[in-house]
Amino acid sequence: MSGLDLLSPAQRALLEQWLPDATPVRDHSWGLVATTVLEVTHSGDRFIVKAGGDTDRHIERELHAHLTWLEPWTGLGRAPALVHGDVAAKLLVTRYLPGELVLNTGHVDAPATYRQAGELLAAFHAQAASTDDGYEQRENDKSLALLDEPHRIADAVVTRLRAEILAWPTPAVTLVPTHGDWQPRNWLVHDDVVSVIDFGRVALRPALTDLGRLAVQEFRGRPDLEAAFLDGYGCDPREAGAWRRHRVRDAIGTTTWAYRVGDGTFEAQGHRMIAEALATD
Prior knowledge:
Elements: H1 9-18, E1 23-27, E2 35-42, E3 45-52, H2 58-68, H3 71-74, E4 82-86, E5 91-95, E6 100-101, H4 111-125, E7 130-132, H5 135-148, H6 155-167, E8 173-178, E9 187-190, E10 193-196, E11 203-205, H7 212-216, H8 223-233, H9 240-261, H10 264-278
Helix pairs in contact: 4-8, 5-6, 5-9, 9-10
């Protein structure tokens, strides 16, 4: 397969209109979700093509993010600029942004990386803020629904999780634009400068939610990385009660999603997240 063969006929036809005779260079697809990510060349320039499958829900959100929220990053050349997009076709094209994934380099252990990531995130969060009276209840309902789906969380743990969620308060919260998957897997580094990719989970949420992945991965045993990140961000948005509620919800979401897609390593991380969240009672 050429790479372009991974796209639907309608997506290939639209791409041919946008970038005639585009040549695939590399497949960057993750493989666990219904999204194809291709690096292509056209007229001497490089682009990234993202195409969603039938079940994809990320391309629409990514296009909305490009059109609404990304200027604080794209204006500095720290995120890929949108060239073409079509919601109905689940297809978008951005300019290629040079760099390597931070996760695959020594920069993943460097405090300077996290200070830059904190600065970038602070600028993103600062764009807008709104109050939502129903956010907490909606998120509780989602977590309870996930516990009804197939998973491998022990029955006793499910009972404990349900009881805790049902007892939580549901205060009004402040929502800001969030990335939704803020971690080194979605940061690029080029000439020691950190940039951002992958906007399929961008949405309005509490700011603290963007620290969730870092807290259970890169910050574990590395207080220097956490301190550098918070120094770049400018404060710590994690109010204790809201942070606990997010940790429990995120642990449930991680475990059930990983089970659904067959990612055993990520599922194990989800079970650890649940155990660690409950251990803080």
